[in-house]
Amino acid sequence: MTHAELQNLIDRSLFADLGYIGGDGRPAIRRVFCVWHRGPGRHLISTNTSSRHVKLLSEHPEACLYFADSETFEGVCLTGRAVPTRDRALRELLWNNGDEKYYPLGVDDPDYCVIEFTADAAEYYRYDGKGALDAEALTRLSAGKAWENGYARHNGSNSSK
Amino acid sequence: MTHAELQNLIDRSLFADLGYIGGDGRPAIRRVFCVWHRGPGRHLISTNTSSRHVKLLSEHPEACLYFADSETFEGVCLTGRAVPTRDRALRELLWNNGDEKYYPLGVDDPDYCVIEFTADAAEYYRYDGKGALDAEALTRLSAGKAWENGYARHNGSNSSK
């Protein structure tokens, strides 16, 4: 699996699975909408500030983010830190028309926040083998890249979102 | 979401996401084929004995198993123990014609094993709300049930597999 094929798996995904440590200290998973990326190692997820996983990640940011395609039998597990942020530029970037139905007060709704995930390790597999990326490789693959909606790009949308 | 709707989500799934503690002590995820169930809280997964997650679970069985449907926006995260076993009856139960391509020595191939997942807690969500099940409720919902291939049942197959 080449780096381009790995990026393609990430870009064509609408969702990823966020793995974190639950309230009982045991592993927990939540499926999240995840289409904004900077290379294979950096990802943005918009969510509710009041969500339980946001509270838990604030206390324990060590997490993983898993992109997989069951039909092609390929997947990548990124390990790193998932940090909830209220950075306004990121909130604006991820805001979509219609999000008012989730966040009635708009971009500045206190319940609207973004989780910034930064990987320092990755393990990927496909039917034809597996591989790994270390922190240095992940940093290099994200270097010089701006945040991009990979799903929109993959699907040929002209919209920036 | 009723208990029947929760069971339906599990039964119609071919795959689940297994969350466990990786080699670095941080959360890790792997997508697994998971169609054998006893109610919502007990599940079987066949896998390679030599897999890294089998080794890690042998040392640290605390894990979660996540069934989700992105299209209907529903999911359930089961928390409990994932225990690799070489129990022959379970290996026979999960064996399918053609598995020789993965395990050339057949049911007794030393690389063929089964992970038995037993939940003691569950959290589920759907667009219309969320809920939880405790260990007592999970035990009650599995009581008197035999192992069943929920996917085959859901899809109306006459095969026991």
Question: Can I get a quick summary?
Answer:
Two copies of one chain form a homodimer. Chain A has 161 residues and is an alpha+beta fold.
Can you describe what's shown?
The structure is a homodimer of 161-residue chains. The radius of gyration of chain A is 15 Å and the shape is globular. Chain A is α+β, with helices and mostly antiparallel strands and 161 residues long. In chain A, strands 1, 2, 3, 4, 5, 6, 7, 8 and 9 form a 9-stranded antiparallel sheet that branches. Chain A contains 5 helices and 9 strands. The longest helix of chain A is centred in the first third of the chain and has 10 residues, at 3-12. Chain A has a single domain, classed as Electron Transport, Fmn-binding Protein, Chain A (Pnp Oxidase, Chain A), CATH 2.30.110.10. The A-B interface holds A 14-15, 17, 19-22, 24, 26-31, 62-64, 66, 68, 70, 75, 77, 79, 121 and B 14-15, 17, 19-22, 24, 26-31, 62-64, 66, 68, 70, 75, 77, 79, 121.
Which chains make the largest contact? Answer: A-B, 24 and 24 residues
> Can you tell me the overall shape of chain A?
globular
User: Could you give the distance between the termini of chain A?
Assistant: 28 Å
Text of the CATH class of chain A: Mainly Beta
Q: Tell me the CATH superfamily of chain A.
A: Electron Transport, Fmn-binding Protein, Chain A
What is the residue-averaged pLDDT of chain A? 94
Q: Specify Rg of chain A, calculated over alpha carbons.
A: 15 Å
The biggest beta sheet of chain A, please? 9 strands, antiparallel
Count of the separate structural domains of chain A: 1
Strand content of chain A: 35-45%
Output the number of helix runs of chain A. 5
Q: Helices and strands of chain A, in N-to-C order?
A: HEEEEHEEHEEHEH
Quaternary organisation: homodimer
- Count the strands of chain A? 9
Q: The CATH topology of chain A is what?
A: Pnp Oxidase, Chain A
